[in-house]
């Protein structure tokens, strides 16, 4: 069974019929999970050691950010736990797929899906000039740094990430004032979920509307960006469509 959103999706892609008995509840959320329809055919779990133990799995799939005490308890109970680090680049997606294939004994299927993913990725990799400067802007004024999966998606789609101009490797806070001074060619925002929080205020600040010459590209689709799976191809296609549309604006 899987207790992490990204391992949920890797397992859904590669597991044999009947092999996967439960996924995390996040896998059922269409905002977060690209494979929510397939996931809803399986029971959801809250990633707690107690409910995992009661299902008596042979293997538990978890992430590096899964609660350490949960992993420790499961292992102390004699349950095998396989830990998956988040993919920080497009190159690491194939590594995670092969890791999952090995964990599930589905190496052949994993290699076939890796080959299909890499072929489609290569087909989408066409150099375009010039490269517009893009800013990824999330709640709490967070941005993805130059050494992140999100930044890789931007780059392969024909953009440069302005976070690199600030020396942000993995990511960090991009103050609204700094964003305005950077004056990127395009701002791509994280999703603004229902409800209200002060953390979301910067996404709608009037200063952004005053940036003449900056395209406000709307919200990205979180589920296509969060996990290192072949679903990132959808995000790349969307970003390439955006890049090509900017040719018409020049």
Structure description:
- The chain is α/β, with parallel strands linked by helices.
- It has two domains: 5-122, Rossmann fold (3-Layer(aba) Sandwich), CATH 3.40.50; 133-249, Rossmann fold (3-Layer(aba) Sandwich).
- Helices cover 40% and strands 14% of the residues.
- The protein has ten helices and ten strands.
- It has helices at 5-14, 36-39, 49-55, 68-76, 91-104, 107-124, 149-156, 176-182, 206-209, 232-249, and strands at 23-24, 44-45, 59-63, 80-84, 133-137, 142-144, 160-161, 171-173, 186-189, 215-219.
- It has a four-stranded parallel beta sheet with strand order 7-5-9-10, with helices on one face. Strands 1-2 form a two-stranded parallel sheet. Strands 3-4 form a two-stranded parallel sheet.
- Helix 4 (68-76) links the parallel strand 3 and strand 4 (80-84).
- Helix 5 (91-104) packs antiparallel against helix 6 (107-124).
- The longest helix has 18 residues, at 107-124.
- The termini are far apart.
């Amino acid at each position: 069974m899987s207790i992490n959103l990204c391992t949920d999706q890797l397992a859904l892609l590669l597991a044999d019929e009947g092999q996967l008995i439960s996924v995390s509840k996040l896998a059922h959320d269409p905002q977060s999970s690209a494979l929510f329809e397939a996931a809803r055919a399986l029971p959801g779990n809250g990633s707690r050691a107690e409910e995992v133990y009661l299902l008596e799995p042979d293997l538990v799939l978890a992430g590096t950010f899964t609660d350490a005490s949960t992993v420790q308890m499961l292992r102390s109970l004699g349950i095998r736990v396989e830990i998956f680090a988040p993919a920080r680049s497009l190159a690491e997606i194939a590594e995670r797929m092969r890791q999952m294939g090995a964990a599930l004994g589905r190496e052949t299927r994993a290699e076939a899906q890796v080959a299909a993913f890499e072929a489609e990725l290569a087909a989408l990799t066409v150099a375009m000039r010039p490269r517009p400067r893009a800013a990824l802007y999330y709640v709490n004024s967070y941005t993805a740094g130059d050494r992140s999966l999100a930044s890789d998606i931007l780059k392969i789609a024909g953009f440069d990430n302005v976070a690199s101009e600030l020396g942000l490797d993995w990511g960090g806070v991009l103050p609204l004032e700094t964003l305005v001074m950077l004056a990127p060619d395009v701002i791509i925002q994280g999703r603004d979920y229902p409800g209200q929080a002060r953390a979301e205020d910067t996404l709608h600040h009037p200063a952004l509307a005053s940036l003449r010459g900056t395209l406000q590209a709307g919200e990205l689709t979180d589920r296509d960006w969060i996990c290192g799976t072949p679903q990132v191809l959808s995000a790349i296609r969307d970003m390439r469509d955006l890049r090509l549309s900017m040719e018409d604006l020049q």
